[in-house]
From TrEMBL:
Organism: Vicia faba (Broad bean)
Keywords on record: Repeat, RNA-binding, Translation regulation
Pumilio repeat ranges per the UniProt record: 4-39, 40-77
InterPro entries according to UniProt: ARM-like, ARM-type_fold, PUM-HD, Pumilio_RNA-bd_rpt
Residue stretches making up the PUM-HD domain: 1-103
One BP term from GO: regulation of translation
Entry superkingdom: Eukaryota
One matching Pfam family: PUF
Native organism taxonomy: Eukaryota, Viridiplantae, Streptophyta, Embryophyta, Tracheophyta
Protein name per UniProt: PUM-HD domain-containing protein
Length: 104
């Protein structure tokens, strides 16, 4: 399923039902598949839109919970790099707070 959705992981989180699918995949997949999803999100020019989206922000939060090591640090750093855009945004602020607390 991951291979089939590859290339769509930036658009899917911004859909109410599809975001649940992406979250589920991150919860239930092996670490390599989770890393592939998160790398696709991070590399996208629309990543900020995902973080600020009413549904996409949950995917970003799940990504912070499901990643480990270097990728978690990279994800956290990328989110924190949008600090100015996120600090006053209702959905983005939650993701930013989670990224600050998951620097490890």
């Amino acid at each position: 399923m991951i291979a089939e959705l590859c290339g769509k992981f930036v658009r899917l989180p911004m859909n109410k039902h599809a975001s649940n699918v992406v979250e589920y995949l991150m919860r239930c997949s092996n670490q390599d598949d989770v890393n592939a999803i998160v790398e696709e999100l991070i590399r996208s020019t629309d990543f900020l839109n995902v973080i600020q989206d009413p549904y996409g922000n949950y995917v970003a939060q799940r990504a912070l919970k499901c990643t480990k090591g270097y990728l978690r640090r990279k994800l956290s750093f990328t989110i924190r790099s949008y600090r100015i855009e996120l600090q006053n945004h209702p959905h983005g602020k939650i993701v930013l707070d989670n990224a600050k607390s998951s620097k490890r």
